[in-house]
Amino acid sequence: MTLLHEHLSHLTRRSFLGDVSRGIGGIALGSLLHQEGLRAASDAPRIGLPGFPHFAPKARRMLCLFQSGGLSHVDLFDDKPMLHKHAGQEIPPSIKGTQRLTGMTSGQSAYPVVPPLMAGRRCGGHGTWISDLLPHIQTIADDICLVKSLHTEAINHDPGITYLNTGNQLPGYASMGAWVSYGLGTENQNLPAFIAMVSQGTGKNPGQPIFSRLWGSGFLPSSHQGVGLRPGANPVLYLQNPPGVERPQRRALLDDLARLNQMRADELGDPETLTRIKAYEMAYRMQASVPDLTDISGESAATLEAYGPDVSKPGSYAANCLLARRLLERDVRFVQLFHRGWDQHIAISRQLPNQCHDIDQPTAALIKDLKSRGLLEDTLVVFATEFGRTTFSQGKLGDPGMGRDHHGRCFSIWLAGGGVKPGFEYGSTDDFCYNIAENPVHIRDLHATILHCLGIDHARFSHKFRGLNVRLTGVEESHVVRDILL
Hints:
By secondary structure, the protein is an alpha/beta fold. The chain has a single domain (3-484), classed as Alkaline Phosphatase, subunit A. 34% of the residues lie in helices and 15% in strands. The chain has helices spanning 3-10, 13-19, 23-35, 73-76, 81-85, 93-96, 135-138, 157-166, 176-184, 247-268, 271-294, 301-307, 317-328, 348-372, 443-453; strands at 61-68, 120-123, 128-131, 144-151, 194-200, 227-228, 334-340, 379-384, 388-389, 406-407, 411-416, 424-426, 428-429, 436-438, 441-442, 463-465, 468-470. The strands form five sheets. Strands 1, 4, 5, 6, 7, 8, 11, 12 and 15 form a nine-stranded mixed sheet that branches. It has a two-stranded antiparallel sheet with strand order 2-3. A two-stranded antiparallel ribbon has the order 9-10. A hairpin with a 4-residue loop joins strand 2 and strand 3. The radius of gyration is 24 Å and the shape is globular. It starts with a helix and ends in a 16-residue tail after the last strand.
C-alpha cells in the first residue's frame, strides 16, 4: 500500500468533504502551538468564522433559561375572560378543530375548559398579565418581551425539546449554543464558549430526561459542543489532577501529548485530532478558571439573598442562575440552564405552584442582577419551553389528579435584553388560548431572531452536512421577528 493510499484509507469521508477547508487553519494552529511550546497561542479571544458577525450585534452573549416539560401558558401568561365564562364546559368544536392529540387525552370522552389555577394581575407599564404564581417575575414585566404566539409541530417531549434546541425534531443536529460558538467563537480563553447546567424542579420529580445531545455539536466540529457543569465539588469530571500529579507535570504531559496529536493530525488530516489538542488545552486552563467561577464566597449577602434560599444548594435552579451571571460577566458566549419538572399531566394544582416557586425569585433576581451590572443591554435572555399546555383538562375535571396535556398550537415565552423591546407583548391567541389569533411565531422564526440579535443573518449561516447547506433555521421559510426588536 502506497503512502497516499494509506493516508486516504484513514481519512474519513466526513473529514474530507466537510472539513478539508479548515486545513489551512489546522496548519496555522499547529504553527502557533509549536511556537508556544504547544500551548495556547495567546490570551486573545478565539474568533469565529471569517466575516462574522454579519452586522453590528445588539447582543454579545446569550442566556437560555429552558423550562423543560412544557409550562402552562394558560395558567401563567395568557388568561382570558372566556376561560372563566366557559369553565367546566366542553371546549367548542370550532376551537378544538381536528388537532392531533397525544395518546394521553385522545381517548377522553370530554374536554372541559379549565381556567387558570390562580388569579394574576396586569404588570408594568404595558399591563402584561402575569399569574400570582410568579410574584417576583411580575416585578420585571417592564424588562421582558412576552411572545404569546409561538408554535411548533411537535406534540411530544423529545421531538419538542430537540426542535427548540437544535432546529430539528430528529437527534444529531447541532444545538443553538454550538451554532453560536461556531459562528462567533469566544471572548474568554479560559472557559468554553458554551456551558450548560441542569436542575430538577419540585413539580414533577423526576422530570423529563435531559440528554447531553441538547448541547451537542452534531455535525459541527466537536470543539463547539457545550460543556456541562455538574453540581458539587467536581463541576467538570476528570478536571482535577490525579493524586501526586502537580500542575508543572500536567503541563509537560500535555505538551508531549499535543506533539503526538499534531503528528497524527499531520499524518491523517483529521480536524478532530486538532480539536482534541484544543480540548486538552481548555481543560488545563479550566483547572484554574472553574474553581474561581464556582467560588461564590465573594458575592455580597444582598446578592445571595436576592436569589433566594436555594442559592446555596449546589445544582439548584437558583444556584445555577447565579453561576450563569458569573459566566456571562466572564464573557462566556452562550449559557443554557435546563430546569426539569414542568410536565403537569397530573396534579397540576399541586405541582405547578411548586415548580413556579423554584424559578420565580431566582429568575427575577438574575434579570435584575444583569441589569444592575450593565450586562443585560448586550446579553440576550430567552425564557423558553418546548410547548404549552391544553386549555381543557387531562383527567376528570375537579379531580386532585387532574392536569393539562401538551399543546403546540400556541404557547408563551419571553425574551429580555440584547436588543429586544422591554415591557412589550407580541402575538395573541383566541379567546380560549388554544389557537393563534395574531402574529404567529414559529420556532424557526425564534431562531432567526436570536441569531439576528447576535449579528448573524440566519440565511447566510450554514454548514455542509450530507450534501446540504444545513442551517439552524432549516430549509423552510423563516423570518426575523423585527417587531419585537429595538
